[in-house]
Amino acid sequence: MSVKQANVSENRAAVGRKVLLRSLSYLVLILACFIAILPIVSAFNVSFKTAEEYASSNAMTPPRNWLNFENYLMVWRGNQPSQSLLRAFGTSGLVVVIVVSVSVMMGSMLGYVLNRFRFPGNGLIRNLFLIATLIPGIAMQVTTYQIMTDMNLVNTLHGYIILMSGTDVISIYIFLQFFENLDVALDESAVLEGCTYFGVFFRILLPLTIPAIVTVAVLKGVGVYNEYYNANLYLNSGTFYTVSTALYSFSGPYKSQFNIICAGVLLTLLPPLILFLVFQKQVYAGLASGSVKG
Amino acid sequence: MSTAASPLLRRRNKKINWQKVALIVTFSAVPLFLLILFTYVPFAKMLKFSFYNMSYTKNKGYVGFDNYLKIFSKEEYVQAMLLSLYYMAGAVVQLSLALFFATLLTSGLKGSGIFKGIIFFPFLVNGIAIGYIFKFFYTRGFVLDTVLQAIGFPLESLPYWLRDKAVNNWSLVFTSVWKYCGQNMVLFIGAIASIDPTLYEAATIDGANKWQQFKAIILPGIKTVFMLNLILSITGSLSAFEPAYVVGSMGANGTATFFIKIHQMAHVNQKVGMACAMAMVLMVLILIFTAAQRLFFRYVMKDSENTFNGKANQAKALW
């Protein structure tokens, strides 16, 4: 009887400890989430305030009218037509679509060649890409700028697109890994049936790499969409604004009117948010394959 | 040699297979061209220009190591380099937090997916947007100050987060931790998820508590991923620029990191030679740090790495 009681109280203590540990874990995670979204939520909050309200109320008090979309309309139309977010979304969309398509094509083709063919230079090409990961790209922007100038590519949209499509090792690596796991028997039987190597790639392997294509497209797409350093440097004549540079240009006309600026910020957050909600799995998977590039 | 790999082709003939050549050339020419154009040519030029006194338009001639000597003799630049220590400290905090959250989120809590998504989301936020969000966040009396006042700090006791030199670099480091912590966490969660779950069961039967399980099972299981993230974060700290560039208004008030200095040297002062020498120094620093960490882990931790190049030797090389 007493042994049983001791057991029960011991169990109770263990359960109690477990509950406490769980509650603490939730508390910590809720705090972390609070910190992660507080800056974004406060931007959301202020984006619905009128200029007068913004000046007179505390940053954290909720807006009087949650349906005041005036600031959103203002940034959507822009201070000047060229700086409107509507146009910037168009420009960025075009850049993203082209750069992603080029990256997917280049990555998958090179992955196929390097994985399936033995030829003199295969190792050399792999090494060239490997060493390139060691050279921090950001350090070379000075001379890259000069090369872009020499080729008359500064302040042109195609110049920016070419630069952004410039070889990205991670997508090549993702495709290399993917081809490694695709059975070579597929290629062999196709060739025996008279298929050319080009046919093997386009008709048989490429459709099978769709998971890798989605991963590369999502990762590269978000990266290009969010890119601002090169956009700022290479598209600064005022003709073309990407989402990033249009947003950057707001600091001129709207200087410290955060109610308007934050409306722009929130609008630019929407595409990655939607993409993330739809492709969560691919985003996580892409990060994992990208991180082992070492 | 070229067709030796495949019994299939060996039977056919020993002549050059033009279809294969055509495929290799067409499929690899463009990526190789872009790689050389945007990586190796700029690198070669950077190395050359670092020995010249020149701007984008004028070249005043070869000056030997003068540019390099100038970098190390000016306190301004050394100071800028030392700023990366803030970011390194931030990186350590960031990785520890990420590992902590990853451990919590893999322990079978309800709603893990939602927590993971929320903590990760800042990684996807546009850099310029981060700049605005945090300028608003840190402005006197705005978001952060309101929260701190609500938990009992009087406004007078709080610093100007972006202006006070005592705290502003930490404020900027925080924005970087905010952005990248979730990304590291996702990678750690992936690594932890790939650990054999029966190990935990065995450990529980043997009476190991959570901390012992963490030390004996989780840590060794994610060593490689942790290592890679550590290297990337530390080298990232050396070339940190995003927070200072977008939140700190191009490095105002003593927040200009070395990269910001390079940017200003090249695009504001137009001193290309000097900027190239600074970029070379940055690159060499990064390489030294990377090599030192790799050696440390290879020989001290006896870690075997699976590299991009390592795969070359195991390539299937079908045709």
Could you give a quick summary of the protein structure above?
Chain A is mainly α. In chain A, 74% of the residues lie in helices and 0% in strands. Chain A has two domains: 2-46; 70-291, Orthogonal Bundle (MetI-like fold), CATH 1.10.3720.10.
Spatial strand sequence of the major β-sheet of chain B = 1-2
Radius of gyration of chain A: 26 Å
Low-confidence runs of chain B: 1-11, 303-319
What do we call the CATH homologous superfamily of the domain at 84-255 in chain B? MetI-like
C-alpha Rg of chain B, in Å? 25 Å
Largest sheet of chain B: 2 strands, antiparallel
CATH architecture label of the largest domain in chain A: Orthogonal Bundle
Number of helices of chain B: 16
Distance between the termini of chain A: 62 Å
User: Which geometry of chain B do the CA atoms define?
Assistant: globular
Put simply, the count of helices of chain A is 14
Q: Strand percentage of chain B, roughly?
A: under 5%
Subunit organisation of the chains: heterodimer
Reading the helices and strands of chain B in chain order gives HHEEHHHHHHHHHHHHHH
SSE topology string of chain A: HHHHHHHHHHHHHH
Do you know the CATH topology of the domain at 84-255 in chain B?
A: MetI-like fold
Instruction: Determine the most extensive contact between two protein chains.
Output: A-B, 109 and 103 residues
- Stretches of chain A where pLDDT is under 50 for at least 5 consecutive residues are none
**Residue share in helices of chain A?**
over 70%
User: Gap between N and C termini of chain B, in Å?
Assistant: 11 Å
Can you tell me the CATH topology of the largest domain in chain A? MetI-like fold
